Amino acid sequence: MREPAKAGGRAATPHYHGHRERLRGKLRDNGAGALADYELLELILFRAVQRADTKPLAKQLIAKFGSFAEVLAAPPARLLEVDGIGEAIITELKIAAAATERMTRDIVREKKVLSSWKNVLDYCRVSMAFADREHFRILFLDKNNALIADELQQSGTVDHTPVYPREVVKRALELSASAIILVHNHPSGDPTPSSADIAMTKKIVDIAAPLGVEIHDHIIVGRDGHASMRGLQIL
Fold first, then answer.
1. CB-count exposure of residue 176 (10 Å: 0-12, 13-18, 19+)
2. What SS3 state is found at 5?
3. Is 113-228 in CATH node 3.40.50.360?
4. Tens of pLDDT along the chain (235 residues)?
5. Rounded to whole angstroms, how far apart are CA atoms 73 and 26?
6. What is the pTM of this model?
């Protein structure tokens, strides 16, 4: 499609050119808190979309997936369902998602885990809450509750992840971990522990306790928030 011509045959400057610089200035001058979700998403889309108005696409993505975070976490196949989304845009979204996860992970690593519980929860939500399959990860801690390792142990289906309690404890012993935090997600969005979640956790506790490995918590994350088995007094 040709741009409308000005008098004298010169092409008019598209309105979104000024919009892009205004939006960048808004971020520079006022910080990310001053931006709506769709505006922050537009800034990411700018990198992949050079000559088009990105506001309608950004709003369409938010409407389809629910939030800025869910857009970044959406599987490529789902993103491709949206008209106007191609590989270049998906790459930019996944770069932003990876940067966010890396930043929250590094914050956790720099502090003692139990004294920075909010950072731990933020990291768990960023890395897992919006995934479309269940994932089971373990945070391994030393005797000072500093993070030794953060490992994704298993990935499963939309409502099940196979977990092998003896393998969990074996890995803790290999890393000389004094304690562990179990984390998994519920793609349904509801983080309420299931009876299977509770039974599996208690089995890990039973195997770990005689070997001197403490289970600090089992955190379940989902779109609707998180649940702590320690907080629910299940542990």
1. exposed
2. strand
3. no
4. 344 444 444 555 666 667 888 888 888 888 888 888 889 899 989 888 887 888 999 999 999 888 888 888 888 888 999 988 999 999 999 999 888 888 877 777 766 666 677 878 888 887 787 888 888 999 999 988 888 888 888 776 666 677 889 999 999 999 999 999 999 999 888 899 999 999 999 999 999 999 999 999 999 998 878 999 998 888 8
5. 25
6. 0.67
CA distances, 95 to each of 14, 18, 100, 223 (Å): 28, 26, 9, 21
Give the Cα separation of 54 and 38 in Å (integer): 10
The amino acid occupying position 68 is F
| CA proximity to 38, closest of 14, 54, 15, 21 | 54
Where do the CATH 3.40.140.10 domains begin and end in the chain?
Answer: 113-228
Instruction: Give the type of residue at 115.
Output: S
What's the CA angle centered on 174, arms 104 and 180, to 5 degrees?
45
Residue keyed to tokens 């930019």 = 92
Give the H/E segment covering residue 218.
Answer: strand 214-222
